[in-house]
């Protein structure tokens, strides 16, 4: 039995591993993707992680992982299918049939991109509809693409795509952006980025692949010609395993403060799955540290 099992190898999980190691705990990190570092790997440039200005997300994630590996972190590859309480702590079941037990669990499984929920989205998935500009942007070199969303991810995606695409539209349902002002300014200054504001997407159209997107503005339906649609409308927490086990808010995030302590004894939530105001790499790393310290305190108190 481990002292701690950490679910997820993003910044929160890897930070928790570093602190668990320094505390002398027996622990393992369970990750779905081999050599994973979380969603940060799909970020072109990180400008707000202290000490690493301008680094790309993949490189920063690799530095996090190298740090955890240097401290002897054990990684287990597998998809978690069930998390349940036992008399002595917690059991983690994987899809390959393996089971692991621990006194405590740090839940850091992050979030997944939210879908648009409009006609044609599922039909053209992989044929012009994407949720990762860094992954799929190269397929649209010299073409016209449309980014849907108004936050940091949407504007970052637009800037990234503008380097290779001929034209980039940013479609947003409001008349102002939620993104950081510096990102908005950069996008405004890009010659091939055009904003389409107060526009509500209704359908993605095409034949063999995407040829356009329909939207409404002030009750009038319009069509925008495009070769690709990149959805950047937020994320959904990966907390389905916790339903009925720990308290979740109305959006599915785990209810926990900065201590990362949840309503279930011995279970700690870190990173994008937790209720908090700011979801960034730096706050995820802080969560990992807090969760590991809380797990240590729990073990010392109970065992």
Automatic annotation (TrEMBL):
Annotated cofactor note: Binds 1 FAD per subunit.
Cofactor: FAD
EC category name: oxidoreductase
Name of the protein described by the UniProt record: Thioredoxin reductase
Organism from which the protein derives: Ruminococcus flavefaciens
Residue span(s) of domain FAD/NAD(P)-binding: 2-288
Catalytic activity, reaction form: [thioredoxin]-dithiol + NADP(+) = [thioredoxin]-disulfide + NADPH + H(+)
Keywords: Disulfide bond, FAD, Flavoprotein, NADP, Oxidoreductase, Redox-active center
Molecular function terms, GO-annotated: thioredoxin-disulfide reductase (NADPH) activity
Family listed: Belongs to the class-II pyridine nucleotide-disulfide oxidoreductase family.
Domain of life according to the entry: Bacteria
